[in-house]
Amino acid sequence: MRVQRWLAHGVLGLLQLLQHLPLGVQAAMGRALGGLLHALAGSRRRVALRNVELCLPELDEPARRALVREHFRWLGRSLLERGLLWHASPERLKRLIHVEGDVGLADRSDKPVMWLVPHFVALDVAGASTQLFQNSQVASIYQAQSNPVFDAAMRSGRLRFGQGQVFSRHETALPLVRAIKRGHAFFNLPDMDFGTRDAAFVPFFGVSAATLLAPARMARSLGMVVQPVLAEMLPGGRGYRVRYLPPWDDFPGADDEAAARRMNQWIETEIRRNPAQYLWVHRRFKSRPEGEASLY
Fold it and tell me: Quick one: CA dihedral 63, 205, 230, 92, positive or negative?
């Protein structure tokens, strides 16, 4: 345990040092790191290949392998550039993060706002933009890290602008609901497999996927405005783009499963627009309907 803590402090210290480099240099280093991870992280590489096979069956095997290889390069960048997001000055980040759309909706809305933010590799950039380009307090849920040093660094990095709260996924929803009722906007990550509790199996690229019903239920019960948000990394030193899309006027409706299908269909569309930057290494189809064999 002591060795793990020492290694974690060393990695975090290195990231803090590297963030002083020009972004183009960091990008090249991150892509190289991603190439190394692709070679070494065999289990995650196999998960990504299986996900791409299930979701994009029109691709032949060489195309799937090329897509996964490119995905790891973007993933390597996202890991290395955490140092930039967690330590660079707000002024530098504002120069690098290009925001499109109505980023100030939560500031003006007389209803609480839910941002729907799928798991693309620039997810943390989207989180930073909610604190750099608008004034509302932000609430989000995060997956606690097994390494306490990394966990503390993640919490500190994501909260360093003093505009938010993060709640562990293992907590009850009550603290989050209270924060929303106090006026916090909710940074919601709707597209991971957290099991079958409070979820329904609805299609994701035509494959049954355990999909959370909480976004629809929360939006309905709290009268929330739902605004999709997409983040992407730009090549080289060009920075990042975060798109705040128009809010969904007809979401969630009366049917939770229909709302989940609508959400998945929108995510599918955005993945097809930028496939290499979606988080393919997550076991999106881990949970299966009763009696169905594992897809991995």
Answer: negative
